[in-house]
Amino acid sequence: MRRDESLPAPVAPKDPQTYTLHGDKITDDYAWMKDRKDPRANPRIMEYLRAENAYAENYFRPLRKMQRDVFKELKSTVREEYASLPVVENGYVYTYSYGEEDDYPIYLRAPESDPKVVDTLMNVNTEAEKHDYFNAGGIQFSPNNRIMSWFENTDGSDRYVVRFKDHQQQTLYADSLVEVGGLEWLDDGTVIYVRQNPKTLRAYQVFRHRLGDAQRNDELVYEESDPLFNVGLGKSRSREFLFLSSSSSDASEYQYLRTGDPNGEFQLFLPRSEDHQYGITHAGDKFYVVSNDKGAVNGAVYVVDTNRIARKDWQPLIPHREDVQVSNVTVFDKYFVVTEWENIQPRIRIIDRATMESEFVTFKKDDFYNVSLGYNPVTTTDTLQIVYSSYRVPTSTMNVSMKTLERRTIRQGRRGYSPGKLVVKREYATAPDGTLIPLTLVYAKWRGGGPKAENKRVYLTSYGAYGSGQQVGYSGFVNCLANRGFTYVIAHVRGGNDLGPKWYHEGRMLKKQNTFNDFIAVADWLVANGYAEPGDITAQGGSAGGLLMGAVVNKRPDLFKAVILDVPFVDVINTMLDETLPLTTGEYLEWGNPKVKKYYKYMKQYSPYENVTAQAYPHLFFFTGLNDTRVGYWEPAKMAAKLRAMKTDDHVLLLKTDFTAGHGGGSGRYAGLQEAAYKLSLIFELYGSDEVVGK
To answer: Which of the following is catalytic: 142, 543, 607, 681?
Structure first.
């Protein structure tokens, strides 16, 4: 189908609203687009969003076949018929499976004593047919294995309902719990759960609930009064303790309760203090603590008796190291297993408890990979389950002998290409302040990718916030790009924790500009080293990564052919001024509070919405969800409208709003692939062809 070239781009009306902040008079022409209560009831907003969707649909008409072909290619790396590895809980074996045509899982269980007697707990496909969006999971059972609880959401937001069912009688309980951020069963059959603030969704209260009673009658156990902190619940691996955490970006605090004493009171483990983050686990008669206290910014591990927990009684187990970050420690009867990070690379270290000598689980065929612990409920075993993935190797579950380090693959994902065909390498760009910024490059030389490619195609992505690192791993998406001669690049910018906590702190608050400068330095390096032509890079980022995209495209639009902004956080100042929005107060330690002058002045320099100017921009593609509770739909809508009014080029600008989804896109295992195929089709057309190179 052809595009209707006569269809004009939507023009959003201006309705100036003005306010004053720190002496600055600020006018927002598109503030009217924000309606967090019920935008569907606002005809003006819906008319504009529908017009943008219609414009995007018209533009995409000739790309439908390409999308179908790309989707088919992406889907080829998915095992359509799939059964999970078993998880054993309280005498039952739990699994989930997908049929060949299933978009959603089927949850199953069987008695451990007779695994052939399989019982269907929930066929999510059946429930999903009733809704445009459906997400269900987090299934747990009461201690007597009779009452099933699960989380459910029908709009893509972060508002979940917990439902209960008597599985023996197949009857649904009348009582359900709303705004739940976490839940655990206690030994007496009562439920303890985290309640979110209904307006801000901050997890701030913990309640006890008795089945059959209304939620309004639940017993308040704990309330977090500090708006910078969120609470969480989780049982220890030993199942003997329930931990109640309170955490901010810079500090944490834990309380604990013995699961055998469900009516007891939570005991404070260690009071919170500024810049002290710690985590605890339990085994035997000991607590094990990973802490950044006393200058141990990368984490040190301590052990302490469960009946003597004072800070002075903590005994050092694994010391702090300058270049190695400790993520967690898992305790076995004969071994400690430590998950660490060094130079962007996760690794697993196995320590013999008798000798305290250690060895690493190594993977000689890949220099860059992702590895994590799998399901390891038993402490008496010598076998460790791990999950491994690289750009060459699909996600693989392996059993490793902690005694000999021999390993056996017990499950592997579907491969979409020959592993030897990809080149994976690490290079370094230099930021304006002299800092070396790592970048990971992936390309198929035989497909025409790499620095000597005739048609230089680069897809550059990053995130750079919240101390969240950019991990490598098998990806049908990357394979799809490599097959068409693209070089896929990750910029490991400051703001993530790719090189540890210090790397994170150098890209937040009043150092946020480092994130943007790092990304631009990587793009300049790609041009200087022959991977890309000036103005020929496609860049992508989502959420806080969308902020990164918005900032760099304002600063250096000349670098890019196209920029994809997924659910982008682009209206920084206005959002951080609104304390009624989810995430705002809890993120003052990430971005700063613009009500404080120094943070406002700094944000004003980079906030994408405020820094749109009359200049030529690359092709811009905005994607959002109407039900997004993390980054409001109005942020990309306002940005797109302002860009249309001010930019001086004739490049494509699309805003696509999913009216049934939230921050994570559509539901079901194939929705994400359809969305990826849509975006790839847009990009492939810009480079002139979607054909696989070298067929």
So the answer is: 543
Cα angle 378-374-331, degrees, rounded to a multiple of 5 = 45
Residue 299 included in any domain: yes
Asked whether the predicted pLDDT for residue 488 surpasses 70, the reply is: yes
Full domain range(s) for residue 508: 417-533
Confidence of residue 228 (pLDDT cuts 50, 70, 90): very high
> Is the same domain home to 391 and 312?
no
Domain identity same for 260 and 165 = yes
Tell me the pairing of strands 486-491 and 457-461: parallel
Number of domains in the chain: 4
Residue 273 token pair? 């203090």
Which residues does 12 contact at the CB level (< 8 Å), separation at least 6? 30, 33, 48, 637, 641, 644, 645
Gap between the terminal Cα atoms of the chain: 26
Q: Is 628 a catalytic residue?
A: yes
209 tagged catalytic:
no
Task: Report the predicted TM-score, pTM, of the whole model to 2 decimal places.
Answer: 0.96
Domain limit, last residue, from 361, 382, 413: 413
Q: Which of 628, 667, 681, 690 is catalytic?
A: 628
Contact call for residues 316 and 294 (beta carbons, < 8 A): no
Which of 464, 476, 482 lies closest to 676 in space, CA to CA?
476
Name the domain boundary from 487, 518, 533. 533
292 and 425 fall within a common domain: no
* Same domain, residue pair 573 and 633: yes
CB 157 within 8 A of CB 631: no
pLDDT at 271 over 50: yes
Check whether 454 has a pLDDT greater than 50. Answer: yes
Distance CA 363, CA 361 (A): 7
Calpha distance 3→64 (Å, rounded): 12
Encode pLDDT of 359-406 as tens digits: 999 998 888 999 999 999 999 999 999 999 999 999 999 999 999 999
Q: Report the mean per-residue pLDDT for the chain.
A: 96
The reply to whether 550 falls in a domain is no
Q: Is 543 a catalytic residue?
A: yes
- Does 155 have pLDDT greater than 90? yes
Q: Which of 498, 663, 667, 681 is catalytic?
A: 663
